[in-house]
Structures are given as structure tokens and as C-alpha cells.
What does this fold into?
Amino acid sequence: MRSLPTMTLATILPVVLVGLLVPVAGATGQGGHRVPPPDEIDATARRLMDRAQVQGLALAVIDGGTIRHVAAYGMRNLARGLPLTTHTVMYGASLTKTAFAYMMLQLVDEGRVDLDASVATLLPKPLPEYDDYHDLRGDDRWRALTPRILLTHTSGFANFRWLEDDGRLRFHADPGTRYGYSGEGFYILQLLLEEGLGLDVGREMQARVFDRFGMTRTSMTWRDDFAADLADGYGIDGAFEPHDDRSSVSAAGSMDTSIDDQARLWAGIVRGEGLNAASRVELVRAQHPITSAHQFPTLDAVTDDRNAAIELAAGLGLVTFRDPSGPAWFKGGHNPWTGNMVICLERLQRCLVLLANDVRAESIYPELTEAILGETAMPWRWEYHP
It folds into this structure.
């Protein structure tokens, strides 16, 4: 990911729909910061969008585990004059990974998955015998891979094999030894469920996560009914990109969703619904320290001592840190036309959910987050390093 420049905008992006699911309590809470009222949140979002030329942005505020405010601003398709609404289907990108981790922990609760079992015991045949994993033949380090290692991005793989000069999958570090964000690890997790347990990951996600939280506008694959209210994308230069109709399930990032649904998802997650207490703790526990100076590029060896001061670490499908309010965690989702972010303050059960169909929105997230959640220890310099 890159930190994005601040820009100016000649046109104003109006708010098109605001949904108040529960009246804002306005409570200060234990964190000492009062969540602003909806009209103040909306005004701040519009002002920052104008400055950065952001075409579309949706947000949800959760406080005390309750959805307090849901809103959408700007356009889902500028050329056609189509407004973004709280029902508009947007690309969830890597927010999929946390939803998938939540589903996997339900399987852990049922005794069907052991987080610390070797993939060698979870698959019916050795990993290198599967078509996509022939590259690992002759390197027995694959046997050290476990669901926990894959969920914490400590597999030792690059983010994706196509980023390698020769396009081949390989280990850059011994499994479990260093954090390095990797979608490849989630591909293996999906293989474990499909081949090892005979599960349909799309169906499991639908039943265990989306249906559980009443997410009627969310799916792991394209649905024809999405077409009537769908967000297209805009790049760093404002270039238009049509929405990608994904036809196959990917645990690493195929979720289409709306801000209404994401509000329900993260409110449910912060309350721990659907998991036993131990698994809910595991989700957001600091599993492996993160020493890298930035999230991307994933294999860069440069470290940053500031990470230790906030206890930056990998959770299961998310990143944890120590905030002045107590334990906190976040998850981003990004492609050249998408900028998503969820930040949760654990003790307060307070979250900010941000979905944008314009990657330029990432440039305003630090300021918008501070306006809504107050001053936090969120490591923006690590997440959005140039």
C-alpha cells in the first residue's frame, strides 16, 4: 500500500443516504473521547472527501457493540450520476480475510479444525501433490505450516506468487518466524477446508457469517441482483474501473458487500457472537510480534522499533496493537480502486468501518478516524507506507 497525497476538489460530493440504526448515545465512555453526533460525522466526511477528490465513501460507527451510525456519500458511478447508498454493493477486498478467520474459529469451536495441526495431517495427500503447490516439492518446510501460522501471515511466502520474478511459490523465511502479509496462506487455508473437510467455503461463509448477521447484500461470489446498485471504482488518478464480477470463491478476498452489512458484521464480531469465549480471545490476541517497518512490500527486511511501543502484532486474520484505551485491532482492504479499513477499540467495543470505491480515500482515513474515534495509536505509517 502507498500513502496517498492530499488533493483538492472543485466539485462537492453530497451525502446521498444516511441510516441511523440506533440513536447516538453520545457517551464519552472509558476512552475519554465522545463519539461525534451524526451530522458532525457527515460534515467531516464530506469536507475531507472534497479535499481529496474522493468519489464515493461509506462508513459505519459502532459503539458499545451497537451500531450507532451508517452513512454513504458521493457517487457509485460518476459518469452515470449514480449515488452511493448504504445498500450499494462494494468490493470488500481483504476484509474477507477476517470474516473467513471468524468462520474458521467456529470450526475450531466444533473440534473440526486444530489451529496448531500441521497441514500434513489436515490434507488427504501431501501439499506438493496438489496442482497449485508443485513448486514446494523438495522443501519439507511446508510440513511446518499450520492454520495459526497461515492466519497470522507468518507462512514465509510472498503476498502472491505472481509477484515473484519467475512466478513460482517459495519460502522466504521459515514458517512461523516472521510476519509477512500473504494471500497465498489463505489459499492454503481454503484448500484445507475444501480438501481436508470436504466443505464448500462459499456456503460455509454464507451460513456461518453472512446469514448469522443478517447480511443480505453480501456474498463470496457475484450475484445478479447486485447489478442494480453496484459501485464501480476510481484509481489514484481518478481513472474509472468497472466492478469485477467475481465468479469463484477466494478466502483471500472475494467478498462483495454493503456498508449496512459490514456494520452488522463488525458489530457482531466485536460482541463475539457465534464464538465461544476462548476463540473470541484468540481472534484478537497478539499472536506474533510485527517488527517490519511497514506492511508492504511484504518481504522488505527493514524494521522499526516503534512497533514494540504499541505492541504491534498479528492476530488471526487481523492486526493488533496497544491503544491508550486498551487493546485494539484493525484490518484493511485494498486494490488500485478500493480503500477499506476497520479499526476497533476492544474495551469500548467501538469500531469505525470505512469502505471506499475510490483509493484516494485512504489519504483521509487518519484524519477522519481521529475525528470519530479520537486520538489513537493506529500505526498509519506502517499500514500506508509509500
In short: Residues 1-27 have pLDDT under 50 and may be disordered. The longest strand covers residues 66-77. The longest helix spans residues 38-52.
